[in-house]
Amino acid sequence: MKPIHKTLAALLTSVLLWGCSKDYLNRDNPTATTDEKWWRLESDLFNYLEVIYNNQMSPGALLTSSTYQANCRIHMSGITDESVFRANFGSWNSYPLGAVTATDGYLSDTYRQNYKDIRNASRILENYSRVYMENAVVKEQRAAEARALRARAHLNLFLFFGPIPIVRKSLDTDEGASVPRNTQEEVVDFIATELDSAAEILPASYPSSDAYRISKGACYAMEVQLFLSIKNYEKVIAYARKLIALGVYDLHYSGSSAVNSYAQLFTYDALENKERILFRRTGNSGAFFRLAPKSLSGQACNGPTAAMVNTYETLQGHTLQELGTDSLTWYWKNPLYNNNRDPRLAASVLFPGQTFVNRLLDPFTAGSVDQLGATQSTQTGFWVKKYLDAKDVSRNNAGTLNFMIIRYAEILLSYVEALVESGDWQHPDVLLYLNKIRNRAGMSNVNTDVYNTQEKMRELYRRERKVELAFEGTRLFDIRRWKIGEEVLKGPVMGAINPNTNKPVVVENRIFDPERDYLWPIPLVEINGNPAMKQNPKW
Fold first, then answer.
1. Alpha-carbon gap, residue 77 to 346, rounded angstroms
2. Is 28 in contact with 44 (CB distance < 8 Å)?
3. How does 484-504 read in b/e, with b if 16+ C-beta sit within 10 Å?
4. Which of 31, 108, 488, 527 sits 20 to 30 Å CA-CA off 436?
5. For residue 195, how many other CB atoms are within 10 A of its CB?
6. Other CB atoms within 10 Å distance of the CB of residue 189
7. Segment 243-274, tens digit of pLDDT
8. d(CA 332, CA 364)
9. CA 249 to CA 393: how far, in whole Å?
10. What's residue 63's pLDDT?
11. What is the four-CA torsion angle of 409, 411, 413, 416, rounded to 10 degrees?
């Protein structure tokens, strides 16, 4: 990996698809031709922008090309209390064990790739005016997309590493050799200003062929994420309302009472839907291979934890914890007992004893193909079901499922959080949107006899975020924002109850340092290469 003066200054010798050259300022384009020849045609601008989209948009499970592993958000759930990650690739498994260091490849990839996108987006903004396009409106929209993508790359870096250097242009070697970190206020202001500027130009929606592009609503959604991360609830409320007022988005509904709308959302039957705000085209092409049971030629890379499974309420709206120890133990052994759980559980997790496609899932019998703990088999006794579609069983690494990076339900939940935490927990929108989300999944309305204080509403919206957005890549940022790492990321991680021992599987013992682990370290190679860079505390 290259130090920051190379990362921020065009990565010096390479930028994605194009090769190295001492004349990188003049030859930084996909065909290694000169700027004067390159920045001419609409197709040139389109192709350059596509490179950024392909790198910047997060997949769910690991793709076989056009991505980097650390950007796969479903696998990243393995460093939270949602799941345990085990695979023959990557280093997510070292993070919750306190074993990650500033030399980790995932850290370096995340840092480098986002600055690569910043560099490339800046190049577009510096050169797009020279491109001939008959439609001047679309030309400005393409530039606005680049501006929004640059803002998103800064947002990614900020969420992972804290305040980072702001880069407003493509830097030469000298400029990039000593770039200090900006303050949090400066980073937030820059991202928000860039997104506001882009939103003024971008359309509210696109035709289906261009639906993956960043829209006005996507800019508002990223500002919701930005301001929620720093608990600026007034801004969260303002941008969430702007997004809602567009009238473009809604929760997905199946159209048939026989089909659960939530479960359908992550299948081919809802490939196009009104809920997606920002998505990666075919971002889950490898989901079946990476997540499915070994008996179906999958790798079971992420095994849901008991902490995740036991979070889901009963259909009556009771938590297992409030039902008492006996009920908790019973449902732990039989998570889907009497079909009396939140339907989002069955839509998101596979369990021992279930038949999926044409395989009986049996992790607890010696010699079973899906035996617990075997290589490329479940480590917890559970499997991730979300985004597993039976249509991919014969093409388990070549599906065409999209991955929703931001969806409408997340924004509604963020809006609810902002209302509750700003003290307006009795605002009618709180119950309106919580019930809308719950009802869509097949759950009952919020019990207002129980959830009748700000503290209880906080408990509820936090649980709703966890179950609604399970394995989608948001949990890490929720844990950090709520400062609950010591509560949920420390101690033994358990899975299903083994019927042979009547005890839960214990997978690992996790370590969490609250003075260190709420931010990732700046990669050591960047610290060594940039004398102006300061490391995060205790790394």
1. 18
2. no
3. ebeebbbeebbbbbbeeeeeb
4. 488
5. 29
6. 13
7. 999 999 999 999 999 999 999 999 999 999 99
8. 15
9. 31
10. 86
11. -140
DSSP state of 210: G
Please answer whether residues 223 and 402 qualify as being in contact, where contact means their C-beta atoms are separated by less than 8 angstroms: no
> Rounded to 5 degrees, what angle do the CA atoms 79, 82, 84 make?
55
CA distance 537 to 284: 35
What is the torsion angle, in degrees rounded to the nearest 10, for the CA atoms of residue 525, residue 119, residue 71 and residue 405? 150
Percentage of the chain beyond pLDDT 70 is 93
What is the predicted pLDDT for the residue at 174?
67
pLDDT tens per residue, range 173-200: 667 668 999 999 999 999 999 999 999 9
The confidence score (pLDDT) of residue 328 equals 96
Contacts of residue 523, defined as CB under 8 A and 6 or more positions apart, other chains included, come to 1, 102, 103, 104, 107, 108, 111, 112
First to last CA, the chain: 19
d(CA 499, CA 480): 35
Which pLDDT score is estimated for 31? 57
Please state the φ and ψ torsions of residue 159, each to the nearest 5 degrees: -65, -35
User: What stretches in the chain show pLDDT beneath 70?
Assistant: 1-33, 173-174, 176-177
Give me the pLDDT at residue 30, please: 56
Residue at token pair 């190379």: 6
Instruction: Please answer whether residues 112 and 7 qualify as being in contact, where contact means their C-beta atoms are separated by less than 8 angstroms.
Output: yes
Tell me, what amino acid is at 286? Answer: G
Cα dihedral 337→338→342→345 (10° resolution): 40
pLDDT at residue 10, as a whole number: 39
- 74: closest CA among 476, 435, 503, 502? 476
520: DSSP letter: P
Question: CA 466 from chain center: how many Å?
Answer: 13
Contacting residues for 535 by C-beta, under 8 A, at least 6 apart? 102, 521, 522, 527
Q: Which helix (H) or strand (E) holds 71?
A: none
Alpha-helical (H) ranges within 34-183 are 35-38, 42-56, 73-76, 105-127, 136-161, 173-176
Give tens-digit pLDDT for 326-363: 999 999 999 999 999 999 999 999 999 999 999 999 99
The CB density around residue 360, as the number of other CB atoms within 10 Å, is 12
